[in-house]
Amino acid sequence: MVVLVDVEREKRIAAEAAAELVEDGMRVGLGTGSTVAYLLPALAGRGLDLVCVATSSRTEELGRDLGLNVVRFDSLDELDIAIDGADQIAPDGWLVKGGGAAHTREKIVLAAADRFVVIADSTKAVDALSPPIPLELMSFGLEATLRHVAPARRRDVPPSPDGGVIADYVGPVENPADLAVWLASVPGVIEHGLFPPELVAEIVVGRGAEIHRRSLR
Ligand code: 5RP
Description:
alpha/beta, four-stranded antiparallel beta sheet, 13 strands, 27% strand, binds ribulose-5-phosphate
């Protein structure tokens, strides 16, 4: 039997549910991607007094166009909440992020937040994480770094706003914690797209017409 998933509806209802978690006066981290694209109008529509930081220029522009107060992330040292999508969500809360090449800024923003809420459609929930795992690499010594993190391939996208080269590790992902430690240890790796459960407060997934919520702390 073929089950058709209305992915856009699932993204929208997850994003709208997360927008309701934001309270007046909060400092809010805004993620990047097509699920966050549903969050921004839902948040702007609430008319709250917020200070927002964006994880990409796409989010910054869209947020400002919708009337959100988006400031540079050099004037705040912590955030009340951050809301972002994910490419893969494992049952134990490990995430893969960076399909939109924004994982370095996303990790910085999410790590600064008291509460990181993941929003996703049901296709993102997986039994186990699998490659590709996004990487941001220094351009200096790029070929040597790619050789070190092999198997890896450079992604055909522009550099990050911080000048990093976007690539993907395509080898096995047996233990995400071990892989995360190894990737972080390789000279030339600026950041990888494995996000540990300790960073995550809540996962909000749209499944059909329903919202499935899971608190990790
Ligand atoms: C961008 C990301 C996104 O959160 C992730 O790729 C999910 O995107 P989408 O909501 O479009 O499925 O990590 O770097």
